[in-house]
Design goal:
Layout (H helix, E strand, L loop, with lengths): L8 H10 L2 H15 L14 H8 L4 E8 L4 H12 L3 H11 L4 E8 H13 L3 E4 L1
Antiparallel strand pairs: 1-2, 1-3
Helix pairs in contact: 4-5
Length: 132
Amino acid sequence: MTAEKKVKPEELAEIIANASVIELNEAIKVLEEKYGITVQSPVMAAPVAPAALSAEVEEKSSFNVVLTAVGDKKIDVIKAVRDITQKGLKEAKDLVDAAAAAPQVIKENAKKDEAEDLKKKFESVGAKIELK
């Protein structure tokens, strides 16, 4: 008998939040088939209060700086990653190499001005950055 890993609620919430729609759909199928749990959509959504609408309109103040594409100047991108993250050469190179396969977070919770400056710095060396 194998021991099952216990997942904390916070970890489960993070997994769900980062899952794609296809992965979530597959998870729902497993819940229905294996455990007999059915997932139903609500019939009618509750009306949204005007205060809640204004909260959604507020501008985001912190961003994750995500490297989505490296471009032609890989060495310059590695230098930029080293400058920003204070990582060593190998760690910076590994992060840039990994960005070729999947987007990589360079900096989390950066203020808006800082995030925009970082984006400009990376774009000046040919990399593509998204602010999330």
